[in-house]
Amino acid sequence: MFHHSSKLQYEVRVDTPDPQFAKFLQQAIGGVEGEIRVAMQYFFQAMGARGDAKYRDMLMMTATEELSHIEFLGHAVALNLEGAPVTVQEEAAKDPIVNAIMGGMNPRHILSSGLSAMPVNANGVPFDMSHVYATGNLAADMTANAMAEGSGRVLASRLYNMTDDAGMKDMLSFLIARDTMHQQQWLAVIEELGGMEAMLPIPNSTPEEHEATEHSYYFLNTSLDEPTPEGRWTKGKSLDGKAEFSVVSPPEPLGQKPDLGKARKHSGAQKEQM
């Protein structure tokens, strides 16, 4: 069950409408870094969360907050579209500012939505849910969520730098702040469960006899002409505390040369392949 307030989560103010910026804001709604993605990701993770019920509750609450972000971003898109040209006559005026706006805005904001937001990215491509990750594994989902919030905060920061509108900067500063919280929220779950050493490798329930552990902890240098890039990943104790990192350079092939044999009759291959 969901509840809804008639008021937005945060104030949205647009001092100078900018239809081109409305197009950019669509990325924060329907882009792979956007709010539809995280709202649906947390929602489906919550529905599949097993174990301590508090994690399901936390996911559902944050999914609901992300719906609120979609709502006020959608309002921001609509406010930025105020004053956008909607007729041929307006375009025909040859006003250089009007022409610049028409050249930069998404025409579907006129043709399809009547000067309002849509569930699409900045290129007008609909969000298709293919970037919603809900594995049923709490550690895998929390790391995916931290990445999602990281890319979302990158996007919000870039949008902040692309506008001079004080109202839009204020709204985006709120989104940046909430992304700060959510990044740390998901990583705090990992810490609460024992930290990365306890969680790795994900899933930590896979029996060790199912893994060829002699291949689990070496970095493979596949370059023909560059030395191994030395770092934390090439030496010292592994993050799960079970082994030492090492380097294999150059790598030796462990498999056979692929040979599929002749093509089958009636498979559509050339005669020479059969």
From TrEMBL:
MF terms in GO: metal ion binding
Cofactor binding remark: Binds 1 Ca(2+) ion per subunit. Binds 2 manganese ions per subunit.
Binding-site residues for Mn(2+) 2, renumbered to this chain: E66
Residues that coordinate or bind Ca(2+): D57, N221, S223
A Pfam family matched in the record: Mn_catalase
Ranges annotated as spanning the membrane: none
InterPro entries assigned: Ferritin-like (IPR012347), Ferritin-like_SF (IPR009078), Mn_catalase (IPR007760), Mn_catalase_dom (IPR039377)
Residues given in the record as Mn(2+) 1 binding sites: E35, H69, E149, H182
Keyword field contains Zinc-finger: no
Coiled coil spans: none
Region (Disordered), start-end ranges: 228-274
Sorted UniProt keywords: Calcium, Manganese, Metal-binding
SUPFAM superfamilies xrefs: Ferritin-like
Cofactors: Ca(2+); Mn(2+)
UniProt similarity note: Belongs to the manganese catalase family.
Protein name from the UniProt record: Manganese-containing catalase
Natural source organism: Oceanicola granulosus (strain ATCC BAA-861 / DSM 15982 / KCTC 12143 / HTCC2516)
